[in-house]
Amino acid sequence: MTASRRRLLVAAGAGAALGAAGKGAQAAGNPDNLPPNQPEWSRTLGPGVIEEAYGTRSRHETAARRYVPWLTQDRQSSVSFTPLAEMNGIITPSGLHFERHHGGVPDIDPSDYRLMIHGMVERPLVFTLEDLKRLPSVSRIHFLECPANGGMEWRGAQMSGVQYTHGMLSCSEWTGVPLKVLLAAAGLRPGASWVLAEGGDASHLARSIPLRKLLDDAFIAFGQNGEAVRPQQGYPARLVLPGYEGNMWIKWIRRIEVGDRPWFTRWETRTYADLMPDGLSRQFTFVNEVNSCITNPCPEKSLRGRPGFVEISGLAWSGAGRIARVDVSVDGGDTWRTAELQEPVLSKAVTRFRIPWEWQEGRQAFLQSRAMDEAGRVQPTLDTLRRVRGVESIYHKNSIHTWLVDRDGTVANVQID
Amino acid sequence: MTASRRRLLVAAGAGAALGAAGKGAQAAGNPDNLPPNQPEWSRTLGPGVIEEAYGTRSRHETAARRYVPWLTQDRQSSVSFTPLAEMNGIITPSGLHFERHHGGVPDIDPSDYRLMIHGMVERPLVFTLEDLKRLPSVSRIHFLECPANGGMEWRGAQMSGVQYTHGMLSCSEWTGVPLKVLLAAAGLRPGASWVLAEGGDASHLARSIPLRKLLDDAFIAFGQNGEAVRPQQGYPARLVLPGYEGNMWIKWIRRIEVGDRPWFTRWETRTYADLMPDGLSRQFTFVNEVNSCITNPCPEKSLRGRPGFVEISGLAWSGAGRIARVDVSVDGGDTWRTAELQEPVLSKAVTRFRIPWEWQEGRQAFLQSRAMDEAGRVQPTLDTLRRVRGVESIYHKNSIHTWLVDRDGTVANVQID
Fold first, then answer.
1. Quick one: A313 and A207 in the same domain?
2. Strand intervals (E) in A279-378
3. Is A76 in contact with B48 (Cβ distance < 8 A)?
4. Mutate which of B9, B10, B33, B58 to disrupt the A interface (most A C-beta within 10 Å)?
5. CA atoms of B401 and B413, how far apart (whole Å)
6. What is the pLDDT of residues A375-408, one digit of tens each?
7. Among A195, A370, B88, B115, which residue carries the largest CB count within 10 Å?
């Protein structure tokens, strides 16, 4: 801080705070760092309480879901991506949760909502939303990932940021009624082993799910991050299948049919099937494989003009349980260091990892993260994935991802296998 | 379901789902439970992705922060309450986080924001928001409670619902830079033992805080529930003091001064001091005492017309650490049962508890919850609290609260000590 600048501030009466700093010490950084002299907001009253009875974010914040125009023919059977670079903890704000729907977002009046349970049960049941809310419920923090996450990379596209390479991923606190409660009320008939879950929107997406998953940890959620499930996430109620791929978490769910074999719906034979190198089709992939991505730095958060300390940070997740370890490389996988996992490390939730790093201007680096889960699964390389699954797949890409930090600090999405 | 109703539905072509149920089984409940016949939303496409690039809730949802007109003279130095009866997990949606401010909500341009650290330090420092975001950060789920929560009850008012008796309580995932990082950069001088934290809004609320708390688990938060801190909660940055009373979590924080004794600001000598029965003033109450409330049923969620199974559910919290146990009574404290604590049970975060109950129409019940924390603290009765602290206090009320479930199922706020 220059003396004249300091005098100016004190003379202008910037207040006790600045006065004390001015007297006692030298400012640490760039003089441009100094606070504005008596900013307007320090001198005037702002709006009072319940100006926003339901609050919104600051007008200075602009994080947004985005979509890729060339990826789908319309926006009603399409996908939007969560701006992962803007996230900082493990919870995704509901307003930024990625979207994937096949017939647009239905506008459902909750008083008209019904959920039917039928098929191989003793007593077919129809529940109103109020019925569901009266039953015992659970709240759980779980990630939700579309299996197409990263699919564009698999085919060789190199999208321009982590929002597009990994942004079909969100993590919420979901609340609802365990399926084991609902199925116990209906009474399972002998031989029951699968269910069909079907959505109430115009696309009627329907998936076959092993009954054992429903009796384990599945629930019908009406709550998301403390309030009602959002319309884009299935309002007023959706299926939550912790650790299972997102398209099975049926939104706007209207019925669960119990049976003794899978239904082989068109979603299973065509949409969510993978063509293998030998020409056969891979069906019924349930669990999201262990995966991770670095969200700082990333193409959206470059290091231009920011040499020195960098906290490399990102998200890791696995449908098989807890994340056990995340290693980070800054040299494209030649050497690895183990990152710190932030508590709480929850089962089938994203886990944030952090590791300090020093970036020197003018120096290239290839950043990678490699997650391991408690089941012992480890992320493969893209090369390994392509060798096993071929190049026709777009689903279940969980390979190690690479960001190139270029000499000038810009960050690019590259494939270095 | 009557046969004619069932035929009508099948004849009208309600689809395979209803057809299958109609053929195979009897409906379980009231025929009025049946889904609307081919609802509009099942036949038409809805809006596509990024119709809301930043999403909002369903137009059918109306939960809102509320305030009490007679409680304060204006809305700029006032409080609004979180609708706890509408919550279902542990996370409070940021749009429903309670508000407490003393000069309205400042509109701060983040590029003009500065945080100064000065006083008994080697190097006074001024940080921009970008500076803070580049440093190592942590994310933690913590409750935030105003010490006046429940204060109206202490004086004998019986507010009409849990929103007003306990709604100065919220719980968020906060992200930011540990104070120990910032203070290490500034360098503490020998003898430093207290800090003064001051807000940048027009009220300049300032509180003295023991330095050891800042070196323990305090941080400057710029993130709340995965996005930027909301304006009403201190945008762009606030102090987070896990487990400490809310007024010390300085919002819009502009400076931290290091010293060797408390400052005895007017907030400490007048506002947040308690007049004891002996005429002395009780100052510097830091930790939120162990507390709990039942959010279902409650005055806002009555049991009218809902005899039978009830899941009694609520929230428990303690500034001293984890909740160890919550007991629930339905007979005004004569007998107690231990509730289930929902995982994850996090330190200095709200914990949801649940316990099943059967309510018989025509029968009165007095519902109470009593929380214990890992430090061994137990909620007192209101009677005990008044004996020790007198009747002039409004802060730190953590006594056992009672809901009367009346014969007709309505729920009222009563004091039965």
1. no
2. 281-282, 291-296, 308-317, 323-329, 337-338, 340-341, 351-359, 365-373
3. yes
4. B58
5. 8
6. 999 999 999 999 999 888 889 999 999 999 999 9
7. A195
Cβ–Cβ below 8 Å for A127 and B88:
no
Across the 417 residues of chain B, what is the mean pLDDT of every consecutive 10-residue run?
A: 33 30 34 65 95 97 96 95 96 98 96 96 96 96 97 87 98 98 97 98 97 98 98 98 98 98 95 90 94 98 95 98 98 98 98 97 97 97 91 91 98 90
**Nearest residue in A to B61, CA atom:** A228
Distance CA B257, CA B117 (A): 6
- Residue range B217-228, pLDDT digits in tens: 999 999 999 999
Residue of A nearest to B296 (CA): A134
Q: Is B234 left (phi over 0), alpha (psi -120 to 50) or beta?
A: left
In a domain, A16, yes or no: no
Report the CATH number at residue B164.
3.90.420.10
Q: Which residues in B lie closer than 8 A to residue A200 (C-beta atoms)? A: 39, 41-42
Same domain, B85 and B151: yes
B57 touches chain A (CB under 8 A): yes
Name every residue whose Cβ is closer than 8 Å to that of residue B56 and which is 6 or more positions away in sequence.
Answer: A95, A230
> Using CA atoms, how far apart are residues A122 and A193, in angstroms rounded to an integer?
15
Q: Which amino acid is at A73?
A: Q
CB contact under 8 A, B33 and A114: yes
* Residue B31 touches chain A, beta carbons under 8 Å: no
A371 within 8 A of A289, measured Cβ to Cβ: no
Residue A353 belongs to domain with CATH number: 2.60.40.650
Count of CB contacts below 8 A, A vs B? 407
Partners of B93 on chain A (C-beta within 8 Å) are 94, 225-227
Decide: B169 and B144 in contact? Cβ < 8 Å. yes
Please give the order of strands across the beta sheet that includes A337-338. A337-338, A323-329, A365-373, A402-405, A411-414
Partner residue opposite B112 with nearest CB, options A36, A58, A185: A36
For an interface test with A, which of B49, B94, B252, B341 has the most A Cβ atoms less than 10 Å from its Cβ? B49
